[in-house]
């Protein structure tokens, strides 16, 4: 079973191919907001590096968010189109789960934080468990200050990971019990997506392309701006 993983929820576009032998190839790029331009060449590059044909793909996995609206729309639309063309099922996994997975060996509670723009962050909290992580709360959207207040309500030691954690590092930089993960862990990783999707594929935990829905958590910026414009003056 070969899985193609696509993640576009943040500034970074990521693709990977893998299966029971592990991840065969992966590629990531972050060049502004060029998700639509970067995605197809990235998929083709990963396919050639893995030495497989697209017709060999058995499952298409995609990052369903939360994240940036345009990036999510591009990635999910492309993944759905590919799954329909190949007549294969899909697996959707949260961007916050993808951030928590690579740091699962920490002894701290994990707080995955994605930059939501407009002074807000998407976030979820996780407990490391043998072989993985368990989500404790979220996904949610709030201001960084609100998230800090929530974290300070307990005596837990935290590891904050994600581009939102780095962007608003000044909010929790002086928290004694908080630690920031490294920069290279700031974005959802396509290799992690393939790994998590493979475990679900073994259980045949699939959805059909028309059933998969993005996890936005809030209305798109354009819709919010339109409502604000038309609201009471």
E-strand count: 10
Main-sheet strand order equals: 3-2-1-4-5
How would you state the average pLDDT, rounded? Answer: 90
Q: Which structural class is indicated by helix and strand composition?
A: alpha/beta
Question: What features would you highlight for this structure?
Answer:
single chain, 233 residues, alpha/beta, Nucleotidyltransferase, domain 5, 2 domains, 5-stranded mixed β-sheet, 10 strands
How would you characterize the overall build of this protein?
By secondary structure, this protein is of the alpha/beta class. It has two domains: 2-94 and 187-223, ATPase, nucleotide binding domain (Nucleotidyltransferase, domain 5, 2-Layer Sandwich); 96-185, ATPase, nucleotide binding domain (Nucleotidyltransferase, domain 5), CATH 3.30.420.40. Helices cover 34% and strands 29% of the residues. The protein has helices at residues 35-50, 69-86, 95-100, 144-151, 163-167, 169-172, 190-202, 221-230; strands at 2-7, 13-19, 22-29, 59-63, 90-93, 109-117, 120-129, 132-142, 158-161, 178-180. The strands form two sheets. A five-stranded mixed sheet has the order 3-2-1-4-5, sandwiched between helices. A five-stranded mixed sheet has the order 8-7-6-9-10. The longest helix has 18 residues, at 69-86. The model is unreliable at 224-228 (pLDDT under 50).
